Amino acid sequence: MKAARIHGPGKVTCDTVDDPSIRDSRDAILRVTATAICGSDLHIYSGGIPQARPMTLGHEFMGIIEEVGSDVKNLKRGDRVVVPFPIACGTCFFCQHELPGHCENSNTENYGPEGGLMKEKGGALFGYTDLYGGYDGGQAEYVRVPFADYGPRIVPDNLTDEQVLFLTDIFPTGYTGIDWAGVKGGETIAIFGAGPVGVMAAKSAWLRNAGRVIVVDTLPYRLAKAKSTAGCDTILWQDDPKKVVEEIRAMTDGRGADVCVEAVGFEPERSLLDKAKAVIHLEKGSPKVLEACMSAVRRGGFVSVLGVYPTTYDNFPIGQFFDKGITLTGGQAPAHKHIDTLLRYVIDGKVRLDDIITHRLPLSQVSHAYKIFKEKEEDCVKVVMDPSK
Ligand SMILES: NC(=O)c1ccc[n+]([C@@H]2O[C@H](COP(=O)([O-])OP(=O)(O)OC[C@H]3O[C@@H](n4cnc5c(N)ncnc54)[C@H](O)[C@@H]3O)[C@@H](O)[C@H]2O)c1
Ligand SMILES: [Zn+2]
Ligand SMILES: [Zn+2]
């Protein structure tokens, strides 16, 4: 079959590999009908999150069940499903506490309580390096889905793939940023990053009756897309983060936003000086966007960190965190927890997800797809690929 595989930084190619097969009685084999590239895949593509051996990428996918193991009673051949991106068993301590990203049974080699740099990581994720379980992902014609009696959700026939595909990751992830902050209605929410995750956070903020939604990005075309698809206010981050913070305070009677959502991660646009500082501190990338969130949030407010941070960072503003009494939450989104509620929103027409798609490409053009998404070429916001082509 065809599969998108990583061969070191900057190199993803469409290769021919063996078809997957059932290895456990709780497995299913899925024929993938649509798959997308996530900003998280770009961290592997850049080398920021390392992967030595070639592996099939992709954790945003859906398709048709081909085959099920003997213990999968809730699915049958021909069912059309979306699959949440964490691989979770459904029965361990963390799964029972609605924390599927921390499942104790999926990442058998590299799981542990510490959350270290290169060991003791969380639960497994599809197609997300050996540190996160080493499972092949869904940017392929077929994928093996472990614990298939727990993750996949059947979707209605009258909805297209593009209408439901983002239930796998970015919609539950954006929603999680709002849910962690306990948004009840009326709040001002500032979202840093107008990528797919940031836009989904903005859509989710409205679903939870936010009073005002402000999205910040360094790229005008991304802000234009956020405005047209999520009806938010926008702020262009140019050179000085202080100006962004001042603008947010000016919009909130000088207080700051009730909630800041960090949807950029550790690889923002950086100056040469920023890069040199990171080398000296043995840091990967920069926490500058997280720092801006800590300044832009009001006293007693909430910061949700959806963007990925893989290393420690010196000078983390712990004093500011304490003085302002900020509630800080982050991590892999518990997609399983929200997927049914969010599918209902889609079925009821309360939210539209497919309006962020800018590129539809065959899987055979995956190298090009990664390049334009990473380099922000061709006004790319979200790429959906067809594995049959
Ligand atoms: N927590 C989770 O479960 C989860 C799930 C999916 C994605 N993610 C992470 O969320 C982050 C965003 O993902 P995405 O798919 O939207 O990726 P993306 O790369 O398309 O979006 C990031 C956006 O940040 C913008 N940006 C760069 N520097 C900035 C700055 N200084 N200020 C404001 N904006 C800036 C970029 O222009 C881009 O629009 C990534 O780190 C990704 O790994 C986390
Ligand atoms: Zn993702
Ligand atoms: Zn589990």
Structural description of this entry:
There is one protein chain. The protein has 389 residues and is an alpha/beta fold. Helix content is 28%, strand content 22%. The chain contains twelve helices and 18 strands. The protein has helices at residues 39-46, 93-96, 161-164, 170-180, 196-207, 220-230, 241-250, 272-280, 288-296, 318-324, 335-347, 366-375; strands at 2-6, 12-16, 28-36, 55-56, 60-68, 80-82, 86-87, 124-125, 142-145, 153-154, 188-192, 212-217, 233-236, 257-262, 297-305, 327-330, 359-362, 383-386. The strands form four sheets. Strands 3, 5, 6, 9, 10, 17 and 18 form a seven-stranded mixed β-sheet that branches. β15 (297-305), α10 (318-324) and β16 (327-330) form a beta-alpha-beta unit. α4 crosses α11 and α5 packs parallel to α6. It is globular and about 60 Å long. The termini are close together. The structure holds nicotinamide-adenine-dinucleotide (NAD) and zinc ion (2 copies). The site of one zinc ion has 8 residues, from α2.
